[in-house]
Amino acid sequence: MSNKPVALVIDDDQDTVDLLEIVLTQAGFAVMSASNGPDGIALALEHRPVLATIDVTMPQMNGLEVTRRIREAMSTYIVIISSRSQEHDVLAGFNAGADDYVPKPIRPRELQARLSAVARRPVLSTAGAPAVGWAPADEDAARSAHLRRVVEGQSLGFAEDETLDEDEEGHEGRDGMLELGVRFIGSWIEFAGLRINPARDLLVIDDRIVDVDPEQVKLIETMLYSGTRTLTARQLVQRYRGSLDESPEAEIRDRKWFDYEMTKLLKRIGDDGPTPRWFLVTEGKLKLVRSQTEV
Question: How far is CA 117 from CA 100, 120, 121, 189, in A?
Answer without folding.
Answer: 11, 7, 11, 17
